[in-house]
Write a structure and sequence with these properties.
Largest sheet: 7 strands, antiparallel
Radius of gyration: 24 Å
Distance between the termini: 81 Å
Oligomer: single chain
Number of strands: 7
Strand content: over 45%
Order of helices and strands: HEEEEEEE
Helix content: 10-25%
Shape: flat
Length: about 140
């Protein structure tokens, strides 16, 4: 009987010690492609400024804003505004062989209307491509 209690106690201690083992594999940056990034939308009379910045972990093959999609609220539904879609090859959206890319892209809007703006930044190097997306809801001025 005593042996069972001692064995039970030893196994309990071993089990508790294995549960308390610390994990030390922590990544210090967002990814192998993106070190720092930010996105912001500012409304202005007749347009939005989409301000973005992305920094790679060093010089990368290509980085910047992959896409900006504008949606307008029409009868309680978000409807795409294709004429305001901006993709990575649009002027000012991205850079090649760079460490950082920052810019402000303008998208036209109609005063007093509700908009959803979906912004995706990216960075691409020999380890692959990574993206981050944020969605903003704004009323045009």
């Amino acid at each position: 009987m005593k042996t069972k209690k001692i064995l039970s106690m030893i196994l309990s201690i071993v089990f508790m010690v294995t549960l308390c083992t610390p994990v030390c594999a922590v990544e210090s940056r967002a990814s192998d492609q993106i070190a720092i990034y930010s996105m912001k939308v500012n409304p202005h009379p007749g347009y939005f400024s989409v301000i973005f910045s992305v920094t790679g972990p060093g010089y990368v093959d290509k980085l910047g804003c992959e896409s900006i999609y504008l949606y307008k609220m029409v009868d309680s539904t978000w409807v795409p505004v294709p004429s305001q879609t901006k993709l990575e090859n649009y002027s000012g959206m991205s850079s090649t062989n760079a460490y950082e890319h920052t810019n402000s892209i303008h998208c036209s809007s109609e005063r007093g209307e509700a908009y959803k703006i979906v912004v995706t930044i990216f960075s691409e190097n020999s380890k692959g491509r990574d993206t981050r997306t944020q969605t903003f809801y704004e009323i045009s001025q």
